[in-house]
What does this fold into?
Amino acid sequence: MIKDSKEHIDLTNETYIQHFKFATCVGISMIYGGIQAIIHAIYPGILTKAASTKIKKLYSLISDKSENNERN
It folds into this structure.
């Protein structure tokens, strides 16, 4: 597991701390978006675009990061 983690971090061109911060932010954003989606499911008239906007932002963030890592 440690070897796999080291390989993954090397592929991302990040330090462990940088990777930890990024992955934690993504995870928290996903949780927040999930809560927004559940609230929207209960009350369809509110947060009508919140979850889809969160998904788009996360996709863009991760795609940009992946593209930058592929270039390096």
